[in-house]
Amino acid sequence: DVEALRRIFSNLISNMLCHGNGGYKIKLFKREKNVHISFENQVIFMDIVSMERIFERSFTTNLSRSSSKSGLGLAIVKELVYRLNHDLEFSLEDNIFNIGIILKLET
């Protein structure tokens, strides 16, 4: 579904630019029978508790609560990725936040 993928990528790029603090990278690579697309950026104020909640509807960090953001972007990403039968992974290491989409070429 091209529209769903467009929405996923748009939401992830928007999230990177709104909440990142530089070090923006988008990587695309093939591993085995899957295509991986990784969205990475530096963060200052993310902790493990926030990271575990980022895909919840209406969750925003304290820093972004004053903005007009609804907190739905990553919840929509998660819903669409799973609806398309793909996988999602995320990590936080040394203030580098990474969200990866794993597109299954064969299901």
Give an account of the 3D structure:
The structure is a single chain. The protein has 107 residues and is of the alpha+beta class. Helices cover 33% and strands 30% of the residues. The chain is built from three helices and four strands, in the order αββααββ. The chain has a four-stranded antiparallel β-sheet, with helices on one face. A hairpin with a 2-residue loop joins strand 1 (25-31) and strand 2. Helix 1 runs antiparallel to helix 3 (73-83). The longest helix is centred in the N-terminal third of the chain and has 18 residues, at 2-19. The protein is globular and about 40 Å long.
Would you summarize the structure shown here?
By secondary structure, the protein is α+β, with helices and mostly antiparallel strands. It has helices at 2-19, 48-53, 73-83; strands spanning 25-31, 34-42, 87-93, 96-104. The radius of gyration is 14 Å and the shape is globular.
